[in-house]
């Protein structure tokens, strides 16, 4: 009996085998050949990954290559335009079926639609499936059929949909399709193709110092690492950590309470449905589980808004903020990182109070404001920052220092392992006050008060700013009270 024609599966932000509907559909059609395409931003318009995300992608793909090889599935790693590469690969391999998980940002959606049209014109079946969200953005709407712009009603609707679809942890989302197989894998060849993408700073073509040691120590990318991280988090929910559980303790940066699943979710190494279901299985109405589910819903809300506002990373959602006097330099980050990733010290700083100097101090964690400095150093060392601290450093940049939120968004895009097109831009607009359902502009986080409340013993600050309290620690670069008054006066100006 002749072997079925192969099916081609296109990996993007779903780097997993378990609970992958699009991969299961390919497996049902025949032996699977997998492909990952590093898309050329010059031809596709898709934003290139930042440095920390490139590191994570390399690690995740290398592990995926090994996992697929156990099933005889080769992963071809290519660079270029998928509109040319995917149809060409289908023709070369004889694949009569191609599938992938959907993406939700307009440049990617448009590209995927073109690929689908080209494949179908060539007589190849092409199908897309739900991607990396709890619900497709177009399925959640108000009673009038409009997209939600406010989180609370959005969360109520989405929670009802998810609970109906998933139930209370009874769906076995962790299983691998029983018919998953391929024509035979050559992992050495795939790893060589991956190396040719030059995602790591140590690659000869990148010519920059290797800054990844802290990332190596902090993370375990890949599907297996995602499930281990989830199991550890669920164990902490069951047995508790310290005096506070997740609902209260998640605001304390020195406490090991948060899930740290965000980069795994960002690269689709585990599905949000699996995470939701596993947490719900503990006790669906427990406060810790409810609050954790709210965080997953917030992630979907960001993608929901990006789906309807594809310019979220560059344009104020609230147009009146276009007149806000934020300091902005369009080419600053590109110029600062031209010689490598470390753009913490701006090459354009000219005068002692020039905003480039303040921006450099913020990036370096040398503002003289302990909680802010701790967060920025944690970010640089590990590719991550505690969420409470993210809000504090964002507030300082946009309100006390008067620097445009886009400078912060760009820096986080380059340095966060969990930076994605939706959450990064959405959260920056939220903290700056110019986004959907944003924190009111006059809500200005006082980093000193925040430290006293959420790091009362200076445990987090001491970890990242050991010189704090000594003579070598700098004075604050900004007067918090005066800068707050200046920010509020500028806000009143655009309101009027």
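Sequence proposed for the structure above (496 residues):
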């Amino acid at each position: 009996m002749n072997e079925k024609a192969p099916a081609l599966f296109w990996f993007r932000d779903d780097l997993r085998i378990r609970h992958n509907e699009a991969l299961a559909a390919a497996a049902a059609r025949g032996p699977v050949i997998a492909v990952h395409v590093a898309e050329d931003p010059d031809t596709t318009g898709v934003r290139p990954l930042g440095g920390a995300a490139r590191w994570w992608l390399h690690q995740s793909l290398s592990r995926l290559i090994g996992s697929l090889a156990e099933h005889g599935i080769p992963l071809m790693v290519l660079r270029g335009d998928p509109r040319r590469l995917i149809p060409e690969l289908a023709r070369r391999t004889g694949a009569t079926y191609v599938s992938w998980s959907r993406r939700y940002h307009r440049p990617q959606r448009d590209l995927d639609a073109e690929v689908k049209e080209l494949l179908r014109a060539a007589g190849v079946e092409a199908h897309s499936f739900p991607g990396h969200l709890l619900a497709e953005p177009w399925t959640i709407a108000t009673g009038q059929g409009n997209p939600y712009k406010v989180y609370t009603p959005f969360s109520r609707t989405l929670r009802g949909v998810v609970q109906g679809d998933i139930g209370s942890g009874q769906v076995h989302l962790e299983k691998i399709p029983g018919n998953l197989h391929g024509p035979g894998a050559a992992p050495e060849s795939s790893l060589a193709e991956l190396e040719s993408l030059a995602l790591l700073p140590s690659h000869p073509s990148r010519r920059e110092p290797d800054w990844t040691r802290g990332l190596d120590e902090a993370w375990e990318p890949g599907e297996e690492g995602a499930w281990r991280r989830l199991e550890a988090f669920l164990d902490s929910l069951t047995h508790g950590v310290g005096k506070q559980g997740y609902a209260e303790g998640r605001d304390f940066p020195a406490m090991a309470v948060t899930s740290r699943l965000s980069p795994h979710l960002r690269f689709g190494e585990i599905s949000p449905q699996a995470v939701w279901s596993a947490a719900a299985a503990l006790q669906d109405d427990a406060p810790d589980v409810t609050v954790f589910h709210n965080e997953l819903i917030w992630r979907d809300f960001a993608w929901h808004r990006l789906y309807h506002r594809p310019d979220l990373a560059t344009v104020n959602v609230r147009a009146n903020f276009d007149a806000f006097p934020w300091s902005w330099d369009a080419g600053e980050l590109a110029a600062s990182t031209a010689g490598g990733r470390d753009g913490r010290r701006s090459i354009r700083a000219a005068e002692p109070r020039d905003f480039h100097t303040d921006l450099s101090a913020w990036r370096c964690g040398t503002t003289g404001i302990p909680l802010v400095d701790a967060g920025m150093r944690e970010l640089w060392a590990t590719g991550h920052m505690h969420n409470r601290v993210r809000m504090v450093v964002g507030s300082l940049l946009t309100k006390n220092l008067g620097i445009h939120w886009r400078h912060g968004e760009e820096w986080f895009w380059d340095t966060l392992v969990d930076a994605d097109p939706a959450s990064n831009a959405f959260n920056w607009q939220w903290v700056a006050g110019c986004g959907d359902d944003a924190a009111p502009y006059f809500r200005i986080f006082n980093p000193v008060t925040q430290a006293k409340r959420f790091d009362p013993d200076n445990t987090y600050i001491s970890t990242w700013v050991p010189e704090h309290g000594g003579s070598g620690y700098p004075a604050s670069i900004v007067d918090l009270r005066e800068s707050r008054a200046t920010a509020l006066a500028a806000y009143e100006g655009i309101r009027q």
